Amino acid sequence: MTVSYPPKRLLYGPGPTQVEPRVYNSMTQPLVGHLDPCFLEVVDEVRQGLRRVFGTANEMTLAISGTGSAGMEAAICNFVEPGTRLGVFSAGYFAERIAEMGRRHGAEVVQWQKPWGKVFGDDEGAELIERDKPGTVAFVHAETSTGAMQPGKGICDAAHRAGALAIADVVTSLGANEIAADANGVDIAYSCTQKGLSCPPGLAPITISARAMERLDRRKDPVEVWYLDLKLLREYYDAPHKYHHTAPVSMFYALSEALRAIEAEGLEGRWRRHLEAHERFVAGVQAMGLQMHVAPGRRIPNLNTVRVPAGVDERQVRSRLLEEDGIEIAGGLGPLAGQIFRIGIMGPLATAEGVDHFLGAFGRALG
Questions:
Q1: I need a surface site. Which of 52, 86, 253, 314 has the fewest CB within 10 A?
Q2: pLDDT tens for residues 230-277?
Q3: CATH second-level architecture of 10-16+266-366?
Q4: Cβ(189)–Cβ(71) under 8 Å?
Q5: Distances in Å between the alpha carbon of 237 and those of 37, 109, 187, 188?
Q6: Three-class SS string for 261-272?
Q7: What CATH number has the domain spanning 21-262?
Q8: 90 strand-pairing partners
Q9: Cα 170 from chain centroid?
Q10: Alpha-carbon torsion 224, 230, 233, 234, what sign?
């Protein structure tokens, strides 16, 4: 193997995930300049498609040049000012990352903790927000490290009653699950391209409500991270299209094509396909005598976490899958290291055939 000729893999991990050929093909289109009228048309198409998958009418909806962590940092550095209080609903690795970013940007961080894999109830979340009165509240809608789906409407409603903004991490859920940002009252939501959108990594979709933009426009001190300053990015993506940075043109081609594929399938049909694949997967692993880490009704359909059986070395299982079947999955992070498998059933692999193929290989690798 050389770098020029990477092996073919089946990406059943938490991301990056399998990419459809039509998306790869779009990246071979001729390069144009990052201020070319053709490219600006592509950007507008992407923004319209992202509004549909986010479930929002927010004007400030765009794709930041960077991975999902760039979206996370943009949300924090623009809307969490030094000395203000940030409340984080924390039950996994990526909620911990939000809290760490908040501390680095000078916020007073309040972390509301639960065991990894649990979620917060609406009344519980409202009580914590009322008690600690943060100016901004953040939660992870689909926690990639645990496989748990956190309902968001109750948190957002409580945040608004307290006068706070609500930030939602939808990195894993966007494109494979309903977000309904407007209906749920999310002020800022960010994601990535390489999970539910079935696209290569490189862009961070983000949407910001008018309410949040009003707060940002009132901000007196400049945002500490120049590259992620949303006021500057707005002047690039909107008229007068002032130069800010050289956008990854081919990645915008890819995201535009991925969004077209989603529109052709239909959002509700796509959500249903991922849920049906998840249900087939859960039935299959339970038939093998394995256990899911997250309780029923709280699981992310496109990111499954399976408990490692006693006496099994999960690293050996993952190595065998990669070597014998070209299948990539992931292990646990933090306190769940060595305890769970993280298995993504997303995009073109979220089919009955995709699930069955994986389960057959998984059973062999488990021995």
A1: 52
A2: 999 999 999 999 999 999 999 999 999 999 999 999 999 999 999 999
A3: Alpha-Beta Complex (3.90)
A4: no
A5: 12, 32, 20, 18
A6: HHHHHCHHHHHH
A7: 3.40.640.10
A8: 113
A9: 4
A10: negative
